[in-house]
């Protein structure tokens, strides 16, 4: 594999998703562009309705069909032969082969994404044999290897376990094993640790990091937890009301956030190092998360923004600016604010 | 000043399984000998993994779940065995805020009706008086007067939680159990609600038992913190002490697992192996020993009692000879 | 569709009050339900006001006009074997059938809601005992139970209504029990308890209003069922006794003349079908309209 462009596993350009509902059409996501390199972890951060989950489903082509939902833009994914696949225009039969094989997904609540009436073993071997010509015996062995890889103790015995017989953390590991069964080049993890306890979350983050080192897969990690972002991400994409509002490497983003929304989010998290010191009120972002069906005009964040200027922020929709150090920010006033 | 809530050796067991007539029935020991006191005006947080019994604790001290044993004293009065009728006047003084603000508000009722419910149930106030009180409360929790006519599904998550808080506070309680009040909210809304709770606590002189798993929020809000594991309190101390000088290996591991929003601080963590054991068959002796990196054979022998290891600092670990990793360094 | 609603959670904006009466708006969109409601309204008005508007009494025997076919003379819908006006008899029969249907529904709702609410809220031994009793009663084939009971007692409008109610409350009890059992675990029920509310307050002010949609749907379907049951029993001769007309016993009389005077069977049969389907449509529409999760976007 040559260096440079060959390292890019996923390229998303001008992705836009519109839903048709009773009340007419609404844009769930617009103008999302990013690319993902081998071994990289991109954290997608946002609150409810920010469009982060919809975006990930669009990458998997798992959204409802055309009249209900229209997806435009381009999503290019590196295939196993090294060429780029145009995900949005692949026929459904080809897409089924791509899912699981090139890109797979781990969800927040493994209980709802695992089949409750099938054993863990059956579900994993089924996924394996769907994509690879392999006998039942060999697939069983492969399943044991995968369960072992994700740190499930007594893997062989677990093959015959049903999802409800496993704990939440174990279920999530089984889900990850299934997602990894065909060595996808891109793994999308949609809030994979939100439903778990912190101790189990630490285990899963550790596992993901280890697997990534071993396989070089790229990970899109969707979360709203900034602590988790700091822990796992190489790059961060902050979403608000269906748009990317800031994109940067993790350290500069946490050190000097440019977009007022990112600044507010970072400030509103209590600092552990000040624990027990009663430091007064947290600096909260005022107002509410906007209704994705009725985003405010202009910059969607303007009603909650401390840097809001009437006649400007509420009129002109800001474009995504690229800064000199290759960061992206969507704010009319970012350079004034940073100065 | 005397304690507002005293809990002594509180137990809450749930029967599970078993055949006909309870043969072979086992007990889930959700709470197994919990003792602590809550001082007037403080925020005592209870943290622990799911299955540690923290939610059951909140419900049981309010007598919303029947205790199996032990004693609960509220403002000096033993309420462990009070009848529902006898508890009724006390309910004005102790209230509850729930985790899921949507599930805890009746979807059929308007905000006005929901917030007025305590006044209707407890009685003795006219319709006009009720309306006035509701308007006051809505203003106090930062809602607009026009929200009174809305229904819960017409509000955002943060607004719903404000309604839940208004309902809990309309009778002027002295004691509030807040069961994960911000964990279902969006990140940018959590800080608003945390600020509101702290402000109301100051203004109304509340005492709060704060049940949570988000250690950053707990660290910010608490005076003291109790760490629970499998139905028992394993460590209890002032918030700062617990973060800087943990004395129980479980506290060390739990606090170490909390992700810190600073990418330059990717620490060496203490990662616990395995899951919290089943509360039906907890390990003998110290229940944490199966996941503890400092466990000794002696840990299996007896349940370690909660001992005072420093001023106001209690820990239930027999190993005084170990040094644990603080989750935050002293600045 | 489910993915879409999940992905776009309802987080309404602060401004823009959503329009009121969304249930009514949703109901109006349901065409079949609107049609059903209109037909029911016509049937009720026709049965209760109609007899005052036509020149014939339902018991008046016009011996010269026996078996007059519909649309052939003075009797618009024809006459029966005794020369009684069919329209008048259908209207009076409608009064009986609809009254039996509504009253039986009301009684079965009261019994069903009470039993279901008690069983669902208290659960445990009381709850299981009540629900096993419901199951046991449900095991009886309704129609035979009804016939057996009707053979034992003196058939009349009141007794038939009570009998139908006695065989129709179990479904309601089951629905309500399930709803209440699920609802009482919800946090808002705990919240009411934490406020010191009595059981009665929690059940009837907090829980039952949340089960109103399935209850109303069950109620409309129960009216349809009761009308049908009354027809069965009366058709078999154990129900409403002639000369008092009901749609069911009119059918009974009509069987012998099926070939010579088919309208005697067709007309009451048509009205029974019309009433029952209308109530079923109405039930469907109400189910959709009253479900708050069907919130229109």
From TrEMBL, chain A:
Keywords, in A-Z order: ATP-binding, Cell membrane, Membrane, Nucleotide-binding, Transport
Membrane topology reported for the UniProt record: Peripheral membrane protein
Protein name: ABC transporter ATP-binding protein
Organism, as annotated: Teichococcus oryzae
PROSITE patterns: ABC_TRANSPORTER_1, ABC_TRANSPORTER_2
Record-linked PANTHER family: DIPEPTIDE TRANSPORT ATP-BINDING PROTEIN DPPD (PTHR43297:SF2), OLIGOPEPTIDE TRANSPORT ATP-BINDING PROTEIN APPD (PTHR43297)
Principal location: membrane
Cellular component GO terms, alphabetical: plasma membrane
SMART domains xrefs: AAA
Molecular function in Gene Ontology: ATP binding; ATP hydrolysis activity
Domain ABC transporter: 10-266
Intracellular or extracellular location(s): Cell inner membrane
Highest rank taxon of the organism: Bacteria
From TrEMBL, chain B:
Domain ABC transporter: 5-255
Membrane topology label: Peripheral membrane protein
Signal peptide: none
Record flagged with keyword Phosphoprotein: no
KW Nucleotide-binding (keyword) present: yes
Record localization: Cell inner membrane
A biological process from GO: transmembrane transport
Membrane-traversing stretches: none
Keywords for this protein: ATP-binding, Nucleotide-binding, Transport
Short name of any one Pfam family annotated for the protein: oligo_HPY
GO molecular function: ATP binding; ATP hydrolysis activity
Gene Ontology cellular-component annotations: plasma membrane
NCBIfam families: oligo_HPY, PRK11308.1
Family of this protein: Belongs to the ABC transporter superfamily.
Protein name, per record: ABC transporter ATP-binding protein
Organism: Teichococcus oryzae
